[in-house]
Amino acid sequence: MNLTKMIKSNEVKRDWIVVDAKGKVFGRLITEIAILLRGKHKTYYTPHVDCGDFVIIVNASEVNFTGMKLQDKLYHTHSGYFGSTKSQKLEDMVSKHPEKLFNLATRGMLPKTKLGKVMLKKLKVYAGSEHPHSAQVKGN
After folding, report:
1. Rounded Cα gap, residues 96 and 91, in angstroms
2. pTM for this one?
């Protein structure tokens, strides 16, 4: 009888994956990134262990959106004080803070636990094509 092997956190081998967001659909890209961060693409995936890879997203400001989302979609923030609700259009978020936009969307697809916060720290987003992680990425 074959037993399923549960991997330990010190046995996980992590890679650095560079994803170019230029011309890709935002939602489809985020789901791929969430799978990479969780480690579901690996054969030894274990739900209670962080087995995901580091993900670097370049050209984040050149991602595509379907439909009328750029003009219609709003992101709301609230500090907890009365009257402090602020709204920002998706179009403004893409132009000013694409890193924040990718972090918000990816965080929604990861577990809502301490493990999810650790996974999100392995996501690095850059608006342009340059990134400071060239030493970690193989093949550069």
Report:
1. 9
2. 0.89
